[in-house]
TrEMBL record:
<keyword id="KW-0274">FAD</keyword>
<dbReference type="InterPro" id="IPR051473">
    <property type="entry name" value="P2Ox-like"/>
</dbReference>
<protein>
    <submittedName>
        <fullName>GMC family oxidoreductase</fullName>
    </submittedName>
</protein>
<dbReference type="InterPro" id="IPR007867">
    <property type="entry name" value="GMC_OxRtase_C"/>
</dbReference>
<keyword id="KW-0285">Flavoprotein</keyword>
<dbReference type="Pfam" id="PF05199">
    <property type="entry name" value="GMC_oxred_C"/>
</dbReference>
<dbReference type="InterPro" id="IPR036188">
    <property type="entry name" value="FAD/NAD-bd_sf"/>
</dbReference>
<keyword id="KW-0560">Oxidoreductase</keyword>
<feature type="domain" description="Glucose-methanol-choline oxidoreductase C-terminal">
    <location>
        <begin position="371"/>
        <end position="498"/>
    </location>
</feature>
<comment type="similarity">
    <text>Belongs to the GMC oxidoreductase family.</text>
</comment>
Length: 510
């Protein structure tokens, strides 16, 4: 079922067994999981089925610290959420990502990779990926002519990726609109979460839109699935009954914001031709490809963060501007156009490059950011057009981040030399070991994580191992905001798996 909330009579009361707020990757995955249940599911989406700039403007906010994308264009505010233009790169986190690592402050999840494995397998289906197989040996049998670099297996491994072309808005609009169990309300922006007199139970959520109408939604359980920054903003902005915001009794909501650092870091020069098809992919065509990753043993030895390196032909990469430069328009459609136009231009110029450079690759880092309490989302003083204080982002990196990027290429450089496949040259920003800063050209991946981190201890986390907000009996957070640490891979496969696990948990409660 579908209702445009602008067309409802003002002050309508909507009821359901569960209420999911936000119809992006997390919210839609959960809704689909309830499709054949006996329960009434209310799915609230702030936007419509298409881009609407007045709704997108609700995402505007200020940034400070490490240079970032404009907040308005760093996500999409309509049905399907940011998958409307995501790249679809998927890989699960590693066992190590869930463990406490004594050299990474605030690391460790209250669940292990094994707890997520069955949900990863299910998430593969939601994301329309292949089998839940990410070991090189499996793909070596499936795909022809994979040639891994002959690096020492104890030091470097091939982390495999699969590629989704699913845009949730397109794929799942019809099944949801036609469903008898799920009632989707578009133009239903949650603006306030309200508690009962004990302040331990959410009773209702107020929603609003630009037609001037406001409605109330009542349910037994509420799942916030608005994306990391927006989930955080909603908890902080619902402050009439709890002045510090909901779930924020220990001043943790909004802290530990993490991104993936995606930055051109080194060059790999090969003296002889070496087939690199294992390390390259084409959108819509490649089933699986690999990035170079450092083994757990070596990470422990060097006390470094978990990351990977991907290869891009240097003749093209040298002409490509960092996306932190091309993605600076407030309109996400224009930023996307600018980025692709620059890539097309780089490809054109790259075709003219000849000589040794044809066997050279830019090495692009993808690495977790160490959890940092000062990297955070807060409320601004300005309000949006629906009266909700805007979110501000202060993105802050630490010396461990810089050390880990540099160390990764020192290790890969040694392996390239020892195996005699080539030489690695560090980019200038990594040369000075005493410089802990990152240049403005450092890209994020538009991956927002960590601001309602998971911990069994309410003094260390906002949600528990079931993604329930500590101290509130019926409020859950779905999405990457719950990640205590972010691993190297892009977050959507993991956040979908975690959302499906949360969905199962809530099924046991209704
Ligand atoms: C250019 C780009 C490329 C990317 N590529 C990849 C990739 O290759 N791999 C990967 O894993 N990830 C990628 N990502 C990130 C990926 O898109 C996100 O991780 C994912 O979409 C997050 O899912 P989500 O459901 O938590 O949030 P979203 O997808 O952002 O969905 C949130 C939903 O909530 C709605 N909403 C927000 N506020 C409210 C409110 N108050 N009331 C009601 N509804 C609300 C929004 O309209 C939206 O529909 C990319 C992102 C971008 C921008």
């Amino acid at each position: 079922m579908h209702t445009d909330a602008r067309k409802l009579p003002n002050q309508s009361v909507i009821t359901g067994d569960i209420c999911i707020v936000g119809a992006g990757a997390a919210g839609i995955s959960i809704a689909l999981d309830w499709m054949n249940s006996d329960y009434n599911v209310v799915l609230l989406e702030g936007g419509g089925f298409d881009y609407d700039d007045k709704v997108q403007e609700l995402y505007n906010g200020k940034t400070s610290g490490q240079k970032y994308f404009p907040l308005k264009s760093a996500r999409l505010h309509y049905f399907g959420g940011t998958t409307g233009h995501w790249a679809g790169m998927c890989s699960p986190m590693d066992d190590l990502d869930f463990k406490i690592r004594e050299w990474v402050p605030n690391s460790g999840w209250p669940i292990s990779k094994k707890d997520l494995d069955p949900y990863y397998a299910k998430a593969q289906e939601t994301l329309q990926l292949g089998p839940y197989k990410y070991d090189y040996e499996y793909w070596d049998k499936e795909l022809p002519d994979l040639n891994p670099f002959p690096f020492k297996k104890e030091v470097v491994w091939n982390k495999m990726w699969q590629f989704s072309v699913a845009h949730f808005g397109k794929e799942y609009k019809n099944p949801i609109v036609k469903s008898g169990q799920i009632h989707l309300y578009t133009y239903a922006n949650a603006i306030d979460l309200r508690l009962d007199s004990t302040k331990k139970h959410i009773t209702e959520i107020e929603v609003a839109n630009h037609s001037g109408k406001r409605h109330i939604v009542k349910a037994k359980h509420f799942i916030m699935a608005c994306g990391t920054i927006q989930n955080t903003r909603m908890l902080l902005a619902s402050n009439t009954q709890m002045p510090q915001g909901i779930g924020n009794q220990n001043d943790l909501v909004g802290r530990y914001f993490q991104e993936h650092l995606e930055v051109a870091s080194a060059e790999l020069w090969l003296p002889k031709n070496f087939p690199t098809n294992l390390y390259s992919w084409t959108y819509g065509e490649t089933k699986a490809s690999a990035e170079l990753a450092i083994t757990e043993r070596t990470q422990r030895e060097h006390k470094m963060l978990n990351g990977t390196a991907s290869l891009e032909p240097l003749r093209i990469a040298k002409h490509a501007k960092p996306r932190m430069e091309t993605w600076q328009d407030n309109d996400p459609r224009k930023s996307s156009e600018n980025m692709f136009a620059n890539w097309r231009e780089a490809e054109k110029l790259g075709k003219k490059e000849t000589g040794n450079i044809e066997r050279a690759y830019a090495l692009i880092t993808r690495i977790e950011q160490a959890p940092n309490p000062n990297s955070r989302v807060t409320l601004g003083t300005e309000k949006d057009s629906l009266g909700v204080p805007r979110a501000n982002l202060h993105w802050e990196l630490t010396p461990l981040d810089k050390y880990s990027v540099r160390k990764m290429y020192q290790i890969l450089g040694q392996q390239a030399g020892l195996s005699e496949i080539g030489r690695i040259r560090l980019n200038d920003f990594l040369r000075d070991e005493n410089d802990h800063t990152f240049p403005d050209s450092t890209n994020g991946g538009w991956h927002h994580m960590g601001t309602t981190r998971m911990s069994d201890d309410p003094k260390k986390g906002v949600v528990d191992a079931n993604c329930k907000v500590h101290g509130i009996s019926n409020l859950f957070i779905a999405g990457a905001a719950c990640f205590p640490t972010s691993g190297a891979p892009n977050p959507t496969l993991t956040l979908t798996a975690l959302s499906l696990r949360l969905s199962d948990h809530v099924k046991g409660l209704v």
